[in-house]
Specification:
Radius of gyration: 17 Å
Shape: globular
Helix content: 25-40%
Strand order of the largest sheet: 2-1-3-4
Structural class: alpha+beta
Largest sheet: 4 strands, antiparallel
Low-confidence stretches: none
Distance between the termini: 23 Å
Length: 175
């Protein structure tokens, strides 16, 4: 199993949202979470990559418990695309380069820059590389955030409504 999850419990202000959630996910497989608004889908994704700390959980990736991992190590394993994202004054290129942060020391290497260039091409974002992210359409920004997650070269992608704001053509491309 690439990802093994057992006994995840999480509450907001004593209101239980997740109760003993568990599953196993082999490599190369896709798992979709379905549920009503407020059911805890986003909360579960945030617990999986330790954005939120569950009350109780056993989460392993590649047989290693993530509770023993530091932030950069988790980011090497999990790429995350949130449901909502606030834009900043970065260029598209720099935003995607942030996905390389778990690997970068004092400065980006040639390899990091090549990964970003490859992902921009893959996502059809080359023409927007030097445009500010706060000047993008919602769909363009969504593709940039997906590109940033891909630049992490993670084992697992945690995608929270990854096709929101995308037109049909781009939804198909992302899927």
């Amino acid at each position: 199993m690439i990802l093994s999850v057992a006994g995840v419990r999480f509450s907001y202000n004593s209101h239980p949202v997740l109760r003993d959630v568990g599953f196993d996910l082999p490599g190369g497989k896709i798992l979709g979470l379905l549920g009503t608004n407020g059911a805890g889908k986003s909360t579960l994704l945030k617990c999986l990559n330790r954005i939120l700390r569950p009350e109780r959980a056993t989460i392993q990736i590649g047989g290693r418990d993530i509770s023993s991992m530091h932030g950069n190590e988790i980011a090497r394993h999990f790429g995350y695309v949130p449901q909502r994202y606030g834009e900043g004054p970065l260029t598209v290129f720099d935003e995607v380069l942030l996905g390389r942060r778990p690997y970068i020391g004092w400065r980006a290497t040639r390899h990091d820059l090549e990964v970003v260039e490859e992902i921009l091409k893959l996502m059809g974002l080359q023409d927007l590389a030097y445009k500010q992210t706060d000047r993008l359409s919602g769909g363009e920004l969504q593709k940039v955030i997906l590109a940033r997650a891909l630049a992490q070269e993670p084992e697992v992608l945690l995608l929270d409504e990854p096709t929101s704001n995308l037109d049909l053509k781009n939804q198909l491309q992302v899927m």
